[in-house]
Amino acid sequence: MIYLDYQATTPLAPEARDAMMQWLDGPDGLGFGNPHSAHRMGRQAAAAVDLARDRVAKLLPSGGKVIFTSGATEAINTAIKGTSGDVLTCASEHAAVLDCAAPVEASARAFDIADVREDGQASLDNLRTAASKKTGLIAAMVVNNEIGVINPIANIVPIARENGALLLTDAVQAFGRIVIPGGVDFIAVSAHKIHGPKGIGALWVRDGVDVAPLLHGGGQESDLRSGTLSPALCAGFGAAAEVAAERMDEDAEHIQALWNRAREILGKWTVNGSETARWQGNLNVRRDGLDVNRLMSDVRDVCFSAGSACASGSGRTSHVLRALGLSDAEAKSSIRLGFGRYTEMEELEEALGKIDAAAEAQGL
Fold it and tell me: How distant is the alpha carbon of residue 77 from its chain centre?
C-alpha cells in the first residue's frame, strides 16, 4: 500500500511515538498521572505538558500563548464563537470555519463569505470591500487543505487592523512546514498533520486578546479551555513539533523533488489552483471526463483523495474547487495527492504511474 494522502493525516513520527510511550507506560508504570494534580506524579506530568507547549510554541510567532485543544476544529470554533462582532471569511475555508455560520448568525452576528481568486488565493480586494467597522473577526487559512494554495496572510493583516477586527488563521497545513506569518491574533494547529498523534491540537492566542471559552469546567488551560490534558498526547505533539522544526528545510527540499517528479509523470493533468503560490506537498489535479470512483477502484493499493466531497458520501461537489470557478464535472474529475517526509521517490513514481495508466485506460 502506498500512502499519498498527507493532507488528511500523516504517519506518526517515531520520535512522537517514543515520547508518548513514556507517558502511557511511564517509569515503573507510573506515567498515568493527572497533570493538574499537585502531588509528585501530577507535577511530573505537568512538566511533560509544559515541555510540549514550549516545543509547539517555537514554531509559532512570539508574543502569544499556546492553549492545547482536542484539535484544530475546537481551536477554530473557540476563536470564532468566543469573540464578538461580525465574521468575515473566504469561500475556500475549511468546514470548521464555514460551518460556524449558523451559530454565529444565531447570536445576531453576520457571517460574510468573500469570493476567492481563480487561482484559489484569497482576494484582497473582496476582503477589503466586505470588511467594515462591524467586522469583529476575519478568518483566513495559511495553506488550503484541498488545493495547497498559500494565502497572503501578511496582506490580510492590515485589512483587519484598519477595521479594528481580529484575525484568525487556520495554519493546520502550514504548521511545521513553513514559517507562520506574524501579526495575527489566533492560530489554529493540529498535531496529526505534522506526524503527531490524533486528538490534540492547539489555539495560539496573541497576548492581550480576550476570547470567551467554548468549554466550561475546571479552566485547566489558562481558564480558556477546560478538561484534563493527556500528557501522552501533549508529549507526542511536542516531539513532532521539535522534529518538524529541525527538519523544516530538509523536508521542504525533499517535497520539492517529489513535486517536480509528480508534475513530470502527470504532465497531461491540469493543476487546480496556483502552481507557484502553494505548498508543494499538495497536488490537486484533474483530467476532464475522469471517473474518479472507477480510478480509485482500479488503483486500490494507492491511498489518495477524490477532489470532490462526494467521495465521502456527502453527495456535494467540493466547495473549494467550485470557489475556483470549476464546474461540477471538472470538480468531480479531480483528485488530491499528498506526499511528505516519509514518501520515497520510488513509491511516488510507482503510484503515479498506476494512476496515470488507469486514467489512460478510461480513454482520456
Answer: 14
Which positions ≥6 away from 260 have C-beta within 8 Å?
none
Active site residue 310: yes
Locus of grid cell 512570539: 62
Q: Can you tell me the distance from the alpha carbon of 46 to that of 31, in angstroms, rounded to the nearest whole number?
A: 11
Q: How many other CB atoms sit within 10 Å of the CB of residue 300?
A: 9
d(CA 94, CA 319): 9
pLDDT digits (tens, 9 = 90+) for 151-185: 999 999 999 999 999 999 999 999 999 999 999 99
* Element (DSSP H or E) covering residue 67: strand 64-69
> What is the grid cell recorded at 277?
503560490
Query: Model-level pTM greater than 0.85?
Result: yes
Residues 6+ apart with CB under 8 A from 110: 86, 87, 104, 134
Which residue is catalytic, options 90, 100, 303, 310? 310
Q: Are 53 and 68 in contact (CB under 8 A)?
A: yes
pLDDT higher than 90, residue 315: no
Kindly report, residue by residue over 74-124, the tens digit of the pLDDT.
999 999 999 999 999 999 999 999 999 999 999 999 999 999 999 999 999
Helix axes 40-57, 231-265, angle to 10 degrees: 30
Mind listing the domains of the chain with CATH numbers? 2-8+248-361 (3.90.1150.10), 14-242 (3.40.640.10)
Cell of 27: 517509569
pLDDT digits (tens, 9 = 90+) for 39-58: 988 999 999 999 999 999 99
